[in-house]
Amino acid sequence: MSAVPDLEPLVLDGVVGHPEEFAARYRRDGLWIDRTFSEMLFDTVERVPDDVAVIAGDTELTYAELGEQVLRLAAGFRARGIGRGDRVVVQLPNVAAYIPLVFALFELGAVPVLALAAHERNEIAQFVDLAEAVAYLTVESHDGSDLAGLAAGIAASSPTVAHTVVLDRAGGGPELDALLAHEPLRHERRSLPSDVAFLQLSGGTTGTSKLIPHTHEGYLGSMVQASRVGGITADTVQLVVLPMPHSFAMRSPGYLGALHAGATIVLATDGSPDTVFPLIQRHRVTETALVPPLALAWLNSSLRGEYDLTSLRTVRVGGAKFGAEAAARIGRELGATLQQSYGMAEGLHTFTGLDEDEETITTRQGRPTSDADEILVVDDEDRPVPQGTPGHLLTRGPATVRGYYRTPEHDRTVFTADGFYRVGDLVQQDERGYLTVVGRAKDQINRGGSKIAPEEVENHLLAHPAVHDASVVGVPDDVLGERAKAYLVPREGGDPSALTLAGTRSFLRERGLAGYKLPDLVEVVETFPSTVAGKVSKRAQRTKKD
Ligand code: AMP
């Protein structure tokens, strides 16, 4: 690699960085690392060129082949005028081309906006607008959604999108081949470790997901910490079943951790036992990360006895609360060590240790990966509560951003004046620093790890001609933890017969809302219960018996 000496830091408007004194400390203490994503990958390519990097279906890429694809695709993107600082919305399922494509953007210093394959017109249009994206990269269809049509619509209507790249359903096809046909660029430093590397989506509480600007040095630093506590080595064979844009799949320690270690990544487009058990057997998978409903599906699957799963050493579970009963079954029934993980796309992530006692790994959601991750547990007035008492979690540290992208007003409500992020979860912390998640204060539904902002769905429901008022809450569910329920007050003169579950869901779908945000239950009511302050009592709606 040849360094370009006169590279100035990337300036992106609407990004709030860490104060210099914190940045200097994190760099000095090795919590931020002096590497870009691209440099991290090419360090590994140089070290283990012939080792297998990625397996997806019939595709198998060694590190050398992965590196070459990255540089060809980077040349292809550059020929289209995409360069440093340009935002590119990437909406892909877990296909073989995912890593080469996003790393091609990283090589150029472009800034991918990593959308979920499950997103629809409504979400994608908002990301494109907010980020002023120059390009949109997707597959022609996913789960019945016409993404080629969406790409054509965006190309026609967006003032900023100059390019779309539409792969076939399996993530290949002529548009990918055309990019790959370019002579590879030479890998060199085209961005700085302190630059924003990509924009990650938040779970969202108000409106739609916010975009989270993570830098190369900060994000890679948090991945390195997670790799250490996650025990990732060159011998790891990591199965990725969660959507790759999720921070849990990406850096906790995620596929970035695997690339950093020179490990092998096996991609699956879903985590169901019939898809993944054969993959675990065939590739001798050693570890994976799951959300609780998937862990339950694995534990309860009748297919378990039919496949050799003995290669599994670590099963990481997070994204939503994993009950202690189910947690205890991972070791007993899958023969793997459970590593619980708690965290958020905004930054902090915690893990239980791999050699911890049974009680800890089944009842705690982990502790931060470094002492520099500051944890405050506070009451409603931001006063610290005694240790072991439940309270609101506030955090700041090397992994946690100081603000979202281009939402200064929202930032003022979710970051304290001294830079702590108000996570919105209720936790308690034991004397060793381990956190147990005991509840949630933010208005968000956690549907088996997928996050729904009720306000976003309510806003769409209010556009329904038969709806006077709408309130969306999470109601308890044995498998998913929570399901989404919409309470609807019909509009006078409207047609209430349209307000069935099917009618409501298809109305929201037509408005371009992602499938996982559609309500699972609908109840038509005359009024909403109210709190003493006269607000809608969501608590009463959550606990109402049918
Ligand atoms: P995301 O940014 O999508 O990763 O969502 C972060 C949120 O997911 C956290 O603020 C929690 O509300 C929830 N969450 C993540 N991991 C866990 C866990 N292990 N237990 C309980 N809640 C969790």
UniProtKB/TrEMBL annotation:
Matching Pfam families: AMP-binding, AMP-binding_C
Presence of the UniProt keyword Kinase in the record: no
Domain AMP-dependent synthetase/ligase per the UniProt entry, residue ranges: 43-405
Entry EC no(s): 6.3.2.-
Any coiled-coil regions, as ranges: none
Boundaries of every AMP-binding enzyme C-terminal domain copy: 456-535
Any one Gene Ontology molecular-function term assigned to this protein's record: acid-thiol ligase activity
The keyword Cell inner membrane is annotated on this UniProt entry: no
Record key words, sorted: Ligase
Enzyme's top EC category: ligase
InterPro entries xrefs: AMP-bd_C (IPR025110), AMP-bd_C_sf (IPR045851), AMP-binding_CS (IPR020845), AMP-dep_synth/lig_dom (IPR000873), ATP-dep_AMP-bd_enzyme (IPR050237)
PANTHER family xrefs: LONG-CHAIN-FATTY-ACID--COA LIGASE, NONRIBOSOMAL PEPTIDE SYNTHASE PES1 (EUROFUNG)-RELATED
Protein's UniProt name: 2,3-dihydroxybenzoate-AMP ligase
Taxonomic source organism: Pseudonocardia autotrophica (Amycolata autotrophica)
